[in-house]
Write a structure and sequence with these properties.
Largest sheet of chain A: 2 strands, antiparallel
Structural class of chain A: mainly alpha
Number of strands of chain A: 2
Order of helices and strands of chain A: HHHEEHHHHHHHHHHHHH
Strand content of chain A: under 5%
Largest sheet of chain B: 6 strands, mixed
Strand content of chain B: 5-15%
Distance between the termini of chain B: 69 Å
Distance between the termini of chain A: 38 Å
CATH architecture of one domain in chain B: 3-Layer(aba) Sandwich
Number of helices of chain A: 16
Helix content of chain A: over 70%
CATH class of one domain in chain B: Alpha Beta
Helix content of chain B: 40-55%
Structural class of chain B: alpha+beta
Oligomer: heterodimer
Strand order of the largest sheet of chain A: 1-2
CATH superfamily of one domain in chain B: Periplasmic binding protein-like II
Shape of chain A: globular
CATH topology of one domain in chain B: D-Maltodextrin-Binding Protein, domain 2
C-alpha cells in the first residue's frame, strides 16, 4: 500500500506542474493548431448543421405543432401522434413496409452474398463480373424505375410478358395486381441495389486468410463446407452490418413505391415513408406537416431502438 | 490623430458608397420582375416559341415589367411542396377546387383592388368569380378558363370496330357495348379511366356518379356530410367492374394519371376516356396528336333529374409574398395573357393569329368565363383562325349547353377524391373487390378530412 502511495505521489507531482504550465489561453489554443482545426471543421459544421442537425431539431419541434409553413404554427401537444396512430392507413403502411423488408431480406440479402462468393471463386474476368454486378447501381434510380416500368407493362406486349410468352407463361399483371405489386417492387430493388453489397462482400472476402481454405481442403472439405465453415464465419462482422443497414434501408423504402405505383393498387404498396409523404404533400391545399413529422419521428425512434437491441443482441457474436 | 482621420475618411467613403447603392436600388425599382407560369414541361418548341412571343409583346407594351417564364403543371403533391417551400412563380394556376380554401388560409395574395379596377370586372360570370373569392369576400384568384367533363374518343378505332365515328355513345349501356366491340375488333382497350392514387381516380369516379345522378357530399364547409356510399357510385363501380372483368374492355394497365392517359390516347392506343373538354390543347402541345383521329362528345347522362356533368376550371393566383409593385405587375400580366383575349376582339384576334402561326390549337371547346353571349361572340372573332377539328367536336359543342353543369364537391374536394382513389384501383385490380366495404372505408376517410377542414 505504502509503496503504491509513494508511486502515486511521485507521478502526481509532475502532472500537477504540467497542468500549471499548460494552462489553456486563447493564444495557446491558436498556437497549438486549435484555430486551424476549427477553420477546417467549419464547412463540415455548417453543412451538417444546416442540412442535417437543424432539420432533425425542426422535425422534432414540428411534430408537436400544426403548421402549413405559410401561417404561424400552433402547438398541439401529442395530437399529431394520436392522429397518426388512429389513422386507418397506418397499420396498412406498417404491414406493407414489413412485407417489403421481409421479401427484401429473403431474396435481396442472400443473392449478393452468393454472387460475391461465386465471383471470388472465378479465376478469370473477375473484374468484368464485378462491373456487371455494379452496373445497375450506376444507373440513376429514377431512370432504372422508368425502365422497369416498361418491362412490367401488364399487356401481352410488355417486355417481361413477351419473354414469358415464349415459354407459354403469362401474361402476368405485375404492378397492376394487389398481390403481385410488392414482389415486383422487391425484384427491381434487389436488382438495383445488390451490386453495392456484392462489392462490399468481395472486398471482405479478400481479407480472408487463404490458408484457412487450404487447411479446409486438406481436411477434405468441398466448396459448400468451405463456404459454411470458413467464408461465412470470416464475414460475420460484415454480414451483421449489412443486415442492419438493409433493415434500416428497407424500413425507409420510398422510391420504388412512389415511382412505380404511388402506393397502389388500392394501397397494396403504401409504405410508411410514402404515408409520411402523403401527409406532407398529398393535399394540394398545404400538407399536414405536423402529422408527417410525427410519423417520421416515430419511425426514427423505432429504428434507433431496433438498432440498439440488434447491436446488443449480436454483440457477442460479432466479437467472437 | 492621423489614424483617426484615416478612419473618418474610410467611414465617409463607406457612407457615400452605401448612399450610392441605395440610390441605384431606388432607380432599379422602376423595373419589376415577376415569374409567371408558362407551359407544362415537355411542351413542343412551337408552343414555347408562341408563349415567348406573347411575353415579348407584353414586355414591349409594359417596359417596366420583366417576365421570367417558368414551366408549370399543377399536380396536387408538387403544388403543395412548392407552396410550402415558397418556390411557386409569382403568377400561377390553381383549380377551382382549391382557390377559396387557399385564400382563407392566407396562402394567396389579395387581388381585390387590382381585380375590381379591370374594366370588364362586372361582366364576369358570378359563379365563376365566386370560385376565386375567399370567405371574407376578398378576390384571391381570377378565372383562366372553365371546362365540363367530356368523352374523348378515337374516331379511327370506332371506324375499325365498325362503329359510326359521328355517333358516339349517348348512354352508359351503349358506351359499354362500344368499348367491348372496340377491344374485340382492334385489340385496343375500348374504354380507359384514370385510376391513379393522385386524386384523378376519385375525380373521374365523381364524374361518373354525377352523370348517374349521385353526389359525393351534402352541405358545406366542415359541417358537410360525406355521401360516398350513394347508390350511383356503387352502380358506377359495378359498371367498371363489369367492363374490366367481364368484358375485358379496359386493357391491362390501370395506373393512368392525367398526363399518361393523354399520351396513351394521342398515341392511338385508347378507344374512349373521360377528361376535361379543353384537353385537346394538351394533346397537341405535349403529345402531337393526329387531329383526324380525335372525337369529342358529351358524357352520357342517366335519365335521372339529378344527373349532370361535372364542371371545373382553372384560376390564376399570385404568391402572397408579392409586394405591391409585383402585385400590380402580376394582375397586368393576368389581364394581358388570360383575360383580354376572352373579352376584347383585338386581343382575341392577335392571340389567335399568333397561335395559328405556331400551329397551336385555336378554338378548343370550353365553357364561358363571362357569359354564353360573350363566349359565342369571342368565338365569332376567332372563327377564321380556328384550326381544331371543330366538326369532330360537334357532338360536344351542340350537346353541352343542354346538360346540367354541376360544380365539384365543395368541401375538402381533393381529399374526397383521394379517399376514392383506392376504391377505383381495387375494383380494377381485384376481381373479388367488395365495393360496399371499399366505399364505406372511403366515406369514413372523406368525412374525417371534411370535419378536419383538410
Amino acid at each position: 500500500m505504502n509503496a503504491i502511495s509513494e508511486v502515486t505521489k511521485v507521478e502526481a507531482a509532475p502532472r500537477a506542474s504540467q497542468r500549471y504550465r499548460t494552462r489553456r489561453t486563447p493564444l495557446t489554443w491558436v498556437r497549438r493548431g486549435g484555430l486551424s482545426t476549427f477553420v477546417f471543421m467549419l464547412p463540415l459544421l455548417v453543412i451538417f448543421g444546416a442540412f442535417s442537425w437543424y432539420p432533425i431539431v425542426r422535425t422534432a419541434v414540428m411534430a408537436f405543432q400544426h403548421t402549413n409553413l405559410v401561417q404561424a404554427p400552433t402547438w398541439v401537444g401529442l395530437q399529431n401522434f394520436s392522429a397518426v396512430i388512429h389513422d386507418p392507413q397506418t397499420p396498412t403502411a406498417v404491414k406493407n413496409t414489413a412485407y417489403f423488408a421481409l421479401l427484401a431480406l429473403v431474396f435481396g440479402y442472400p443473392i449478393p452474398l452468393a454472387a460475391a462468393v461465386l465471383m471470388s471463386e472465378v479465376r478469370n474476368r473477375r473484374g468484368t463480373y464485378s462491373v456487371l454486378a455494379y452496373l445497375p447501381v450506376v444507373i440513376p434510380p429514377v431512370v432504372a424505375v422508368l425502365l422497369w416500368k416498361t418491362f412490367y407493362d401488364a399487356s401481352g406486349t410488355g417486355v417481361f410478358n413477351t419473354i414469358f410468352g415464349w415459354i407459354g407463361l403469362g401474361p402476368f399483371p405485375w404492378l397492376q395486381s394487389q398481390s403481385w405489386a410488392m414482389p415486383s417492387l422487391v425484384l427491381e430493388s434487389t436488382w438495383a441495389n445488390a451490386g453495392a453489397t456484392v462489392i462490399i462482400y468481395l472486398a471482405a472476402l479478400t481479407a480472408v486468410n487463404p490458408e484457412l481454405y487450404e487447411a479446409a481442403s486438406v481436411d477434405g472439405a468441398g466448396i459448400w463446407r468451405k463456404v459454411w465453415h470458413v467464408t461465412l464465419p470470416q464475414l460475420r462482422g460484415v454480414l451483421l452490418v449489412t443486415l442492419i443497414l438493409q433493415i434500416i434501408g428497407t424500413a425507409q423504402v420510398f422510391l420504388e413505391p412512389y415511382l412505380f405505383t404511388s402506393g397502389g393498387p388500392a394501397n397494396a404498396t403504401l409504405t410508411v415513408l410514402l404515408q409520411i409523404y402523403d401527409y406532407a404533400f398529398g393535399n394540394s391545399l398545404g400538407g399536414d406537416y405536423g402529422k408527417a413529422t410525427a410519423l417520421s419521428l416515430m419511425l426514427a425512434v423505432f429504428l434507433a431502438l431496433f438498432s440498439f437491441v440488434y447491436l446488443f443482441a449480436t454483440r457477442s457474436w460479432s466479437e467472437e | 490623430m492621423k489614424s483617426t482621420r484615416f478612419i473618418t475618411a474610410v467611414a465617409a467613403a463607406g457612407l457615400l458608397a452605401i448612399c450610392a447603392t441605395a440610390a441605384a436600388v431606388g432607380a432599379s425599382t422602376q423595373t419589376v420582375t415577376i415569374s409567371v407560369a408558362s407551359l407544362i414541361p415537355g411542351s413542343t418548341k412551337a408552343a414555347t416559341d408562341q408563349f415567348n412571343q406573347r411575353v415579348a409583346a407584353f414586355e414591349k407594351a409594359n417596359p417596366s415589367i420583366k417576365i421570367k417564364a417558368v414551366e408549370y403543371q399543377w399536380t396536387g403533391p408538387t403544388f403543395a411542396a412548392k407552396l410550402a417551400a415558397g418556390t411557386l412563380p409569382t403568377v400561377f394556376e390553381v383549380p377551382f377546387t382549391d382557390a377559396r380554401t387557399l385564400g382563407d388560409n392566407g396562402q394567396l395574395a389579395d387581388l381585390t383592388p387590382y381585380a375590381k379596377a379591370l374594366p370588364y370586372f362586372s361582366k364576369y360570370n358570378k359563379a365563376v368569380i365566386a370560385e376565386g373569392t375567399n370567405a371574407k369576400g376578398k378576390i384571391v384568384a381570377l378565372p383562366k378558363g372553365a371546362y365540363a367533363q367530356a368523352l374523348h374518343y378515337n374516331r379511327k378505332l370506332f371506324s375499325e370496330a365498325g362503329l359510326d365515328p359521328n355517333k358516339p355513345p349517348t348512354t352508359w349501356a351503349q358506351l359499354r357495348t362500344d368499348a367491348a366491340r372496340i377491344t374485340q375488333k382492334t385489340g385496343k382497350p375500348g374504354y380507359v379511366q384514370m385510376a391513379k392514387d393522385d386524386n384523378t381516380a376519385g375525380w373521374i369516379l365523381t364524374t361518373l356518379t354525377y352523370a348517374l345522378g349521385g353526389r359525393m357530399e351534402r352541405g358545406t364547409g366542415t359541417h358537410a356530410v360525406a355521401t360516398l356510399t350513394n347508390a350511383q357510385t356503387v352502380t358506377a363501380l359495378n359498371m367498371l367492374h363489369q367492363m374490366r372483368w367481364v368484358d375485358n374492355s379496359m386493357g391491362a394497365n390501370f395506373d393512368y394519371g392525367w398526363s399518361d392517359i393523354n399520351q396513351a390516347f394521342a398515341a392511338g392506343n385508347v378507344g374512349m376516356y373521360i377528361s376535361g373538354s379543353d384537353v385537346y390543347t394538351n394533346l397537341v402541345q405535349a403529345s402531337s396528336i393526329d387531329p383526324s383521329l380525335y372525337g369529342l362528345a358529351p358524357i352520357p347522362l342517366a335519365k335521372n333529374k339529378n344527373a349532370g356533368v361535372l364542371g371545373g376550371g382553372t384560376l390564376v393566383a399570385v404568391k402572397p409574398s408579392a409586394n405591391k409593385t409585383q402585385l400590380a405587375a402580376a394582375v397586368r400580366w393576368i389581364d394581358f395573357f388570360y383575360e383580354r383575349k376572352l373579352i376584347t376582339k383585338a386581343q382575341a384576334v392577335a392571340d389567335a393569329k399568333s397561335l395559328v402561326a405556331d400551329k397551336q390549337p385555336v378554338g378548343v371547346p370550353a365553357l364561358p368565363v363571362f357569359n354564353r353571349k360573350q363566349y359565342d361572340l369571342a368565338n365569332t372573332w376567332i372563327k377564321p383562325y380556328i384550326n381544331v377539328p371543330l366538326k369532330q367536336m360537334k357532338p360536344f359543342t351542340t350537346g353541352i349547353f343542354a346538360q346540367r353543369l354541376i360544380p365539384e364537391p365543395e368541401a375538402s374536394t381533393q381529399a374526397v377524391y383521394h379517399s376514392l382513389d383506392a376504391a377505383v384501383e381495387a375494383v380494377l385490380t381485384n376481381k373479388s373487390a367488395d365495393i360496399q366495404s371499399l366505399l364505406q372505408s372511403a366515406n369514413q376517410q372523406a368525412q374525417q378530412a371534411i370535419s378536419g377542414g383538410a
